UniProtKB/TrEMBL annotation:
It comes from the Eukaryota. It comes from Ceratopteris richardii (Triangle waterfern). This is N-acylneuraminate-9-phosphatase. GO terms for biological process: N-acetylneuraminate biosynthetic process. It holds the Pfam family Hydrolase. Keywords: Hydrolase, Magnesium. One of its GO terms (molecular function) is N-acylneuraminate-9-phosphatase activity. InterPro entries: HAD-like_hydrolase, HAD-like_sf, HAD-SF_hydro_IA, HAD_sf. Its cofactor is Mg(2+). The keyword Transmembrane helix does not apply.
Length: 279
């Protein structure tokens, strides 16, 4: 597993371990905590949702393939991939109405319509069918990544609160959270679109701590987005931030520096061990 070397305790650890090499790791953790003036115990772990707990990009691909199949039955002569590609371009640029005047499902139907128009097809009913197909197939595929449920239950068994802090449109995010039955598993769930400030503003992170009954310096933030998840955890002065490099891109100074880097949720066990959490 790859972990960045700039852990906040690194310098204190190096100095102390030179003098107290015989202490157990747990004892050294306590000493390090005293040396840095911080509390080491982890009381809460917060996760981003998309491409952290659930591989959203994979669910998107499943939905895109389903839309292609639907198009193939309705308009066999059409370049189906071109329609999907065009939709994705529009979707990435404006996933919902920036002025919040148009319902998000209708907005996305209009994006499909624009993609169809690019192929010289004008059929708003078909566009709505494509959006319904995209939504239903994506939600069916929207399930926890491997190891998530076990990890969360093990954390809770250690009396550590577990939460989700996700940005995005409330209607879309709530549908995803329902699809994977998040409320059955997590203690705290916050959707950025429902809060006064989204990630990376510290306010939403501090509210999560309040709901979990912990201080920021007792919380760890885990997410795949450097600008929102990692920067937010840093803004709120969390104990640690963990970047999930889900696309295996490497950090390469591309943004805010996390305390740790993992490639998937399962690798989090080793990071947590460094904070005295053994499961
Ligand atoms: Mg994400």
């Amino acid at each position: 597993m790859e972990c960045l070397s700039h852990n906040i305790f690194t310098s204190a650890t190096l100095t102390l371990e030179r003098f107290i090499p015989s202490l157990s790791f747990a004892s050294q953790v306590q000493v390090r905590a005293s040396a840095t003036g911080m509390t080491m115990s982890v009381k809460a772990v917060f996760f981003d949702l998309d491409d952290t707990l659930v591989l959203t990009h994979a669910a998107d691909k499943v939905a895109h393939r389903a839309v292609s199949r639907l198009l193939a039955t309705r308009l066999p002569e059409l370049d189906h991939q071109a329609v999907v590609d065009s939709f994705v371009l529009h979707f990435v640029s404006e996933p919902w109405d920036p002025h919040h005047q148009i319902d998000v499902t209708e907005w996305r139907s209009q994006l499909w319509n624009r993609a169809l128009v690019c192929q010289k097809v004008e059929d708003m009913d078909l566009a709505r069918d494509l959006q319904n197909c995209f939504d239903s197939e994506r939600l069916l595929a929207f399930q926890w990544a491997s190891g998530v449920e076990v990890l969360v239950k093990k954390l809770q068994a250690q009396d550590i609160r577990v939460g989700i802090i996700t940005n995005g449109h409330p209607k879309i995010q709530r549908a995803k959270l329902k699809a994977c039955r998040a409320e059955d598993l997590f203690n705290v769930i916050l959707v950025g679109g429902e809060e006064p400030k989204e990630k990376p503003h510290k306010e939403i992170f501090l509210k999560a701590c309040l709901l979990a009954g912990c201080h920021p310096e007792e919380a760890i933030m885990v997410g795949d987005n450097l600008k929102t998840d990692i920067q937010g955890g840093l803004n709120a002065k969390f104990l640690a931030t963990v970047w999930v490099d889900v696309h295996l891109q490497g950090h390469a100074n591309r943004g805010p520096k996390p305390h740790h880097i993992v490639q998937n949720i399962v690798q989090l066990y080793e990071v947590l061990r460094q904070y005295g959490v053994t499961m």
